Amino acid sequence: MNETFKRITISFYRYVIIDQPHQLRDELYAEWAALNVFGRTYLAQEGINAQMSVPEHHWDEFMLRLQARKYFENMPIKRAVEDDGKSFYKLKVKVRNKIVADGLDDGTFDVTNVGRHLTAREFNEALADPNTIVVDMRNHYESEIGHFENAICPDVDTFKEELPAVEDMLKGKEDKKLLLYCTGGIRCEKASAYFKHKGFKDVNQLHGGIIDYARQIEAEGLENKFKGKNFVFDERLGESISGEIISECHQCGAPCDTHTNCANDDCHLLFIQCEACATKMDGCCTDECKTIANLPMEEQRALRKGKLKTDAHSVYKSRLRPNLKNLRNQKV
User: Fold this and answer.
1) Alpha-carbon distance 220 to 230, whole Å?
2) pLDDT tens digit sequence for 159-181
3) CA 45 to CA 106: how far, in whole Å?
4) Per the residue annotation, which of 153, 182, 188, 289 is the catalytic one?
5) Distance (Å) of CA 149 to CA 186, 225, 226
6) Max CA pair span of the chain
7) pLDDT tens digit string along 46-63?
8) Is the separation of the CB atoms in 95 and 25 below 8 Å?
9) Cα Rg for the chain, rounded, in angstroms?
10) Helix, strand and coil in the chain, % to nearest 5
């Protein structure tokens, strides 16, 4: 928070066969730590998925080293739309089974047979086609604060849940033009191949996702068909694309698109909270959490000690967002 130099927030991904992901993980961590890079990166045998904060004065060296590796040559880099340089505060590089949790058995279909990649201009033109169905391939808490006009926004909490849910919703519409989009494009790479495997004839995806769409419409003076804010998985939790607020505070209903995590460390529910409610509720989602959050830290730790996350002192165990407004009104 006290740094005087600028940072650049970026994201990138690539599906590429990595022979020794654990060894590469160690090499990348040492290399990036030396450059004071922060962020969160997932490696797997199928590729890399990274969101990072790079010191501006180390940018050229970071890119030179990244693209010098055979796996990451000519890597497309997406820069944040809004960037205060405070997106990440530590460096994490982890090896996982997949770079995106999709729940799919990749051996059952051709994951390389992806949909057609559309530029922002082509995507806008396709949106005007009455034979088009546009699907938001993100989670509901992402689409709640921003989405494309007339998009189907499934009420799901994970990408793994969304794939079968969308398939069910679109049964009988396999001949329609299908447009997919997500934050940076990585979820659509797998989703487009999945839907082609399921018999959809005309599958298309927004190249570079919402992040690159915002860059293209500004650079080319195109009409912006995205309304609201783009949710991001870092400390910023969002970046405005159209300047419009299309969502509301989960506690009072006032126009708001600011996500926060409940200040009760044993809850951390992700929800939308306006400044007035944040002040009134001390940054908490409910009165129960406010009571716990205001206890001395020793007492909070004692409440948590020995408890599993499933037994945590949170008011809503499911990851799906509760109706906090109704919940509070019922107790008045």
Assistant:
1) 20
2) 999 999 999 999 999 999 999 99
3) 12
4) 182
5) 21, 6, 6
6) 61
7) 999 999 999 999 999 999
8) yes
9) 21
10) 35, 20, 45
